[in-house]
């Protein structure tokens, strides 16, 4: 009996096994290659993230440095402003700001031209209303220390009394940059009574920019044009 095909089947099976082994090896190699490639990509990704983090950190550090530098400049500028303001205050104090002072005729022109804002009361010692005005101006000089308050005895200042045509007492002349911008003659502008308040007087000065500070007692922030007494 002839058995057909048994030898061929064995050969075929061997070939199949060999082919399978080759395929498995190829698949295994391919899987290893893919694993290696994935690991490399993963390492590259981690490195990229680290580099980005380092870059971000560097940018943050640079931003912090810039912010610190700007704060330092602002701080230095503020210090210089405070020093300048202190120097101005010292100079004004030496010039008599914050006080109500008597001056002689020969000092009048120099005083009103050197002061940014100046109030001068032309008075007579024997006039009762001049004494009332004196009391109010003494109060205002302390309240508004960015304005110079002075007084001059008319009996000792004939030249400027004539030059400024002072005919009624008291007369208070308001100066800005050495220029007379307004005058308060007698008490007419203050209601014509002796019982006006220091604030009423201050409001007139504020209106003409001889007082530029906030009015004492004016919590509402009202300024020029107020009609409150």
UniProtKB/TrEMBL annotation:
<feature type="region of interest" description="Disordered">
    <location>
        <begin position="29"/>
        <end position="73"/>
    </location>
</feature>
<feature type="compositionally biased region" description="Basic and acidic residues">
    <location>
        <begin position="51"/>
        <end position="63"/>
    </location>
</feature>
<protein>
    <recommendedName>
        <fullName>Thioredoxin domain-containing protein</fullName>
    </recommendedName>
</protein>
<dbReference type="Pfam" id="PF00085">
    <property type="entry name" value="Thioredoxin"/>
</dbReference>
<dbReference type="InterPro" id="IPR013766">
    <property type="entry name" value="Thioredoxin_domain"/>
</dbReference>
<feature type="domain" description="Thioredoxin">
    <location>
        <begin position="102"/>
        <end position="189"/>
    </location>
</feature>
<dbReference type="InterPro" id="IPR036249">
    <property type="entry name" value="Thioredoxin-like_sf"/>
</dbReference>
């Amino acid at each position: 009996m002839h058995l057909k095909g048994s030898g061929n089947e064995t050969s075929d099976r061997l070939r199949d096994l060999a082919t399978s082994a080759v395929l498995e090896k190829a698949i295994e190699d391919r899987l290893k290659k893919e694993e290696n490639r994935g690991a490399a990509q993963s390492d590259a990704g981690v490195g990229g993230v680290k580099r980005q983090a380092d870059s971000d950190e560097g940018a943050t550090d640079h931003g912090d440095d810039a912010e610190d530098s700007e704060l330092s400049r602002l701080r230095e500028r503020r210090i210089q402003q405070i020093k300048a303001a202190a120097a101005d205050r010292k100079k004004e104090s030496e010039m008599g700001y914050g006080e109500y002072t008597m001056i002689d005729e020969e000092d009048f022109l120099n005083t009103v031209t050197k002061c940014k804002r100046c109030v001068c009361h032309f008075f007579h010692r024997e006039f009762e209303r001049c004494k009332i005005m004196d009391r109010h101006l003494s109060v205002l000089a302390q309240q508004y220390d960015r304005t110079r308050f002075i007084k001059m005895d008319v009996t000792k200042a004939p030249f400027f009394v004539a030059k400024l045509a002072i005919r009624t007492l008291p007369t208070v002349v308001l100066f800005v940059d050495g220029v007379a911008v307004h005058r308060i003659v007698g008490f007419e502008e203050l209601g014509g009574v002796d019982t006006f308040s220091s604030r009423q007087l201050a409001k007139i000065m504020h209106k003409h920019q001889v007082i530029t500070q906030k009015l004492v007692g004016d919590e509402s922030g009202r300024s020029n044009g107020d009609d409150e007494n």
